[in-house]
Amino acid sequence: MRERRPIELLSPARDIATAKEAILHGADAVYIGAPRFGARAAAGNTIDDIATLVEYAHFYRVKVYVALNTILRDDELAEAEKIIHDLYRAGVDALIIQDMAIMKLDIPPIPLHASTQCDNDSIQKVRFLQEAGFTQVVLARELTLKKIKEIADNTDVPLEVFIHGALCVSYSGRCYLSRALSGRSANRGECAQCCRLPYELSDAQGNTLVKEAYLLSLKDMNRGEYLEELLDAGVTSLKIEGRLKDAAYVKNITAYYRQLLDGIFARRSEYRRSSAGKSKIKFTPDPNKSFNRGFTPYFSDMPSFKTISSRFTPKSTGEYIGTLTGTNGRGLKLTNASVMHNGDGVLYKTPQGEVGGFRVNRVSEDTIYPAEEKKLPQGTEVYRNYDSEFEKQLSQPTAERHIPITAELSYNGRHLVLQLTDDEGITIKAEETLLQVEAAKQPQDDNQRRQLSKLGGTGYKAEETILHDTGKLFIPSSQLAALRRKAVADLTTTRSKKYTREKPGIRNTPAYPQKKLTYTANIYNTAAEQFYKECGVESISPAYEANPEKGVPLMHTKYCIRREFGQCPQNNQKAEWKSPLWLKNGNTRLRLDFDCKQCIMTVTKP
């Protein structure tokens, strides 16, 4: 019988509390920021907190990955090395890294995952990382299903892809716009999100093509419809973006994908989840009710790729509710108003393109009443970006997760023996001396099963309780409880000892597929430079952060403004806009150039 392929649902965590919620709601792995050097500088965590999380996660066989994926200066390498040793002692399962300097440090035998910041977009690049010793590679978000399958078919390293969350408009790791405009480097975890600003678009002659809009702000990714295709393409890890998101977001989105995957596994016996236990979700997950700018699957070979920008707002639009049909005093008549609640948050868009928002004070039949008076025209589109009832529900405990066990109780003439067996086949036996043997006046089976099943708060659930002729004995409930507690503690200790961390790859210096590396390779220290030279690279330019070259592209992006507005010559669209195109925000002007052969747009500050 062919072995079932384990599939990992990987959820984000800004802190230990959020991570625990991700685990309860069905995550097979979580990723969290290191104390320093993570690509979300505002989401660092202490070693002690990470160690506490590891203990909790490993009970469910959930892996803990730590993001240490910024580029490092030479004077930071020693601190990074110490942090890595601390993380290894804390029990983490892998590090997510970008800087190849880490390959040259004296680090413990910890698995390394290649961050999407490494720009992993080709067979050659992924094969290099595999041969260098990485045990998992996070692919670039921009890849098509066909390309993902090609990489999987030609490499052996496990592949991780993003399936949900905010999208960087640029290839990850190849965006320098924030560094150029604000001094804050995305590759150092300090992105100022200049892509979420409004810009005016003009052509080569200075004609205004689009008035102020959020032209570089993309919708959020949602690949819920394509999970099966991703698995069939060879992906083993499915990643949710959002290390800055709150617990409610992580609960909802994790539970949503957990249920989708479980549905697939029920039909497809060749796949299984990679962690242990079963999650009981106590609400109906709905990604439309969590922060989103609208959704796109972001597969560049699909028609839906043509409209992927969220150009009327960079904020959460949420779920579309309906349109305004008129007014009722201070109230606004709304189609589908009945689904709204007091306290909901609204984002609106008028037919003239004006965008704003308000809080709903109350709802009455077909009318919603804003907390502050709003005069809005008929036809205004209304979106709910804060569902007060849904958020109230998510503020409560919304999931449980249990390891299923079988409990067997027997009496050998002197001792009560309780045997517990978990779903991995791990078995322990606990004994208690039955000091006084009394025949029961009536069968005790129901009481004994009830006492042995009281596992609340332990993380276990007795799916089967077997009594070996003990129902005829009177056994005090207190003694059954003591025996149960002892058995549960022994099982937990045994499970902990049997947890094995993934083996690290063998670090190596294989031939790099290129002989020359530009600033886009993000080489920021001498250790990374040494690594690439040992891999056969002959010419190396320093990272943009070290040497901000003038006139070089600050973004390389699969997103194309010409295609977005029906001006793509490759798609036989009527291309009337004369290049180069220009974006303007205040005193900032950015030039847009188009490599139609590779289908890439670049953004340059002249």
From TrEMBL:
For this protein, the record's PANTHER family field holds: 23S RRNA 5-HYDROXYCYTIDINE C2501 SYNTHASE, PEPTIDASE U32 FAMILY
Q: Which organism is it from?
A: Candidatus Caccoplasma merdipullorum
Starting at the broadest rank, the lineage of the source organism is: Bacteria, Pseudomonadati, Bacteroidota, Bacteroidia, Bacteroidales
According to the lineage, what is the superkingdom? Bacteria
The protein's name in its UniProt record: U32 family peptidase
Known PROSITE patterns for this protein? PEPTIDASE_U32
Cite the Pfam families for this sequence.
DUF3656, Peptidase_U32
Domain annotation Peptidase U32 collagenase: ranges: 382-495
The family database entries (InterPro entries) matched by this protein are listed as: Pept_U32_collagenase (IPR020988), Peptidase_U32 (IPR001539), RNA/ubiquinone_mod_enzymes (IPR051454)
